[in-house]
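User: Run a structure prediction on this.
Assistant: Running it now.
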Amino acid sequence: MTTLLVIAKEPRPGRVKTRLTPPFTPGQAAELAEAALADTLHAVAATPATRRVLVLDGAPGPWLPPGFDVVAQCAGGLAERLAEAFACCAGPALLIGMDTPQVTPELLTVDFTDCDAWFGPAEDGGFWALGLACPDPALLRGVPMSTPVTGAVQRERLVAAGLRVRDLPLLRDVDTAADAHAVAALAPRGRFAARLARRTAAGGPVAEPVSRPAGPR
């Protein structure tokens, strides 16, 4: 069994999904972030695991299902916060973010029998999942985050350490309005898709941007 980690921010206006504004308002972006986080947590809750941990910047809300331990994120940049999340794990662990509400329990059910690490690349050049059979925070510290090569650098760090790496499917993060529409179409029955549809019906943005800036979370 594996510890499943979700690293997330409390979905408060102005603190989450800032690249959705515009065309969405900060309040609308926070609503979408909450729905994405809820979908992610419910997928994790349905996945077999030794332990489920929400590594949170902020306070938990009604969107948190039962069965999760909640720990506060440490100070520092994203690489340091990811490293510290793994530092609290004594055995195999898989970490994901809150930006892929299309994730399923099947994707999160990983087996370390014939590998040392699982790597989930994101379309924007980052990564949406990282699994380590023997969590070592040093594997993440110093990796440049939020660049088009973050995923490549992180995966190469694993390979350079002599780890046997298996890849998960390429997924799209929700960063921009275009991402939101594309991801909602992949999981049309989810909370995120429903929230986006309600927001659109209520007069929220309909048009999608024609391009998206590269840069992983």
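The longest strand covers residues 3-9.
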